[in-house]
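Protocol step 6 of 9: fold each sequence in the batch and record its structure tokens directly after the sequence line. For illustration, a two-sequence batch is reproduced in full.

Sequence one:
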Amino acid sequence: MAITYYNESLEESSKYIKDKSVDLFFLDPPYFISGKSKDIDLETGDRSDWDCQWNNLEEYNEWTSEYLKLAFKQLKDNGSIYVCISWQNAHIIHNLLEKNGFTILNRITWKRDKGRGAKTNWKSMHEDIFFAVKNKSNYTFNIDDVKITKKVIAPYKNEDGTPKDWWINENGEKVRLTYPGNLWDEFCVPYWSMKEVKSYAKTKKTPDNFLPKHNTQKPKDLVRKAIIASSNVGDLVVDYFSGSGTTAIAAEELGRNSIVFDVNKICIQMLEERIKNELT
């Protein structure tokens, strides 16, 4: 499989991606929740500048609509898209996905643990991930590959006394396979503890690394779950916002091709370090 990456903006993606050629988009765009507009710092890797480059929600709406329109054009007729967003601006993604031709199949809630919260408000404990398709009657969804094990409350048995659709695992627990839901709470890992952060960033445990931590990085297993469910081996996965490169790394591990973009050269270096440390 191949990872292809460009230190360019998503607006340049049409130079490299043909229309109706992408099987899956996994997008983690700026959420526009960091404050007032700033110029983008393309040298230091400061993602707060990237998150607040718009003067108002109208500008952010227009930019969001443009990249979703582009994704719809590049996506195969049986392709899928996942878009991450905070609760504050989830309504924007919802409206613009539908406006640009997608059918929303679900709004996944990702339970995550980041930050200590505020004394005057409830701590934010989740983010949204929209799952949408071009054609609700024809899309990839590998349900058997993403079923989860769950403890059995009522251990039913067959007439001969053998377990009915359950077994005893290595911990002595009665479990069964069940269909996954839209609450993803198995990836609630403290951000700085993620081993993929240590793959490229300078931390107490990896003092020889030279790159900064990417402050909006998603857990690799979360991205893997979406890729496993909504693409097949050999498919093309695209991410307009590479960040630390999680989508590309996850896609490569799962036998998918990927094309990713980022305007920040520090982020491209993060991906290059992760390719070297995690895939070789």
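Sequence two, same batch, same settings:
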Amino acid sequence: MANRLEVLKTYKLYIGGQFPRTESGRYYNPKNSKGEVLGNICLASRKDFRNAVVAARKAQGGWEGKTAFNRGQILYRIAENLEGRKKEFIDLIVLEEGLSNSKATDVVNGAIDLFIYYAGWADKYQQIFSSVNPVSSSHFNFSMMEATGVVGCMNTSNTSFLTFVGAIAAIIVSGNTLVCLANETAPLSAITLAEVFQHSDLSAGVVNILTGKIDELKSHFASHMDVNALLLNGQGLDLSEIENIASGNLKRVRHWDLSKNVSSPYCIKDFLEVKTTWHPIEQIGGATAGY
């Protein structure tokens, strides 16, 4: 059948633990460096983005409320499932990023290792970044770290699968939830990773993945009043433009360029807030007691 037309796979969005088609009904067909069409990719709309934020907000309290040990277990389970599908992801990265098989293998192995790395940090970053503070009054003063809340992440067209995974793991390990826009020109591995999340005990809505045009969605990511922080992952965006829009609700904006080391506890700290508590001290018979 020499005239047979190839049936391209349609890759859906990942919102609230489900795989809906874009409400706009629009798709695009990115090509790799060889001119091969990668598939039918959803062009997410503002409505899709808003739906993802609602799902992330709904999931955030329950996800942060899990024990750190449990969040670490779930990240480790993601690594286990990604290991089981390693060959599939290697083939996807060879196809969309144009890497050799050996380099694509290194990328996927690195992604698996990143999930394990951050799983190990789940119950340790508090001890590193929290503190007991000296004060001159009769109080104990403690500073502890809390999740920022709902984080938006936009990945530019020069980000790799490894950087994408590092951002996800670093953001969610502390209890944040995430709305992520995949690399516009290499979205296959990102949206396929959603299938791994779906079978890894990750609560619905913790990670939401959109595909589409960054120029269409960047202002919505920056202006949405229920997005607490924003990560610009990669190069090519006008940072001042994004920061001006995000200032409308004092949204924290972080930028990770291509030289960023994505395996660092300071990547977790980028999306933590400091809560300081004052605890009075009572003097009882010459002894000090807190109450």
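Proceed to step 7 once all outputs are recorded. Observation for sequence two: The mean pLDDT is 92.
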